[in-house]
Request: fold
Amino acid sequence: MKTKFMKVLALAMGAALACFALSACGGGSSDNAADGDIKLVKEGTLTVITSADYPPFEYMDGDNIVGYDAAIITEVAKRLDLDVQISHMAFDSLITQVAGGAADVSISAMTIDDERLAEIDFTDSYYDSNLAVVVKTDSKIADLDGLKGVAIGAQSGTSGENWVKENVGDENYTPFQEMTEALSSLRTGKVEALVFDAPVAEQYVKTSYTDCKVLEVIPTGEQYGIAVNKENKALTEAINKALADMKADGTMDEIGKELVK
Ligand code: ARG
Reply:
């Protein structure tokens, strides 16, 4: 009798310990209670916005938004038992829209930075990145010093734009809403250089812009996070848990291997 009771007690204690360990992994607070507080624009659906001009992270395939970020957020939604709806929006309005509650999250190769953190929360980072300078293959610009006095562009509201303003100045700077517009302006000579994320630069010059090249990678050490409304801590926590699980079980690597070359 006594041993049976001890066994049951041991089992119960084990379960309690496991629960404690699990909730500790999930960010400290009780996951179940936090889950209950998740707010969604549309019930049962994770409403996502992105600027779908950024291969291999987000781009259009016919009417569909595909790429690494799309795959990541689709898998996250699945793990939260939600459908996913991803729509396109200009990059420089993504944060305002999430802060205003028009979308639940934005995943858009978005660099975690303090200025943005004043308006929205970021999940833990899911990708490391750098900037790059892209010029025409026949450009006379030899290095970063060669950017002084040259017409230069970046996507509006991005870290590339900040880099140009801080390191080259804004006298000869042109902001572009969409990357495709930026790249065609480089092609036609309206600007002579563009600054944007290195993995995206590598992808564009390898595929649709073979008349352009990466002049230099700038090791800015940026980290991408998913933007979430500040009033929705439970959603941030739930996404962090899903991301951690996806890192631990190899899903993240698999998606990366397939979609980021
Ligand atoms: N990583 C850069 C930033 O956060 C650029 C992101 C641009 N993303 C896009 N989907 N166009 O500022």
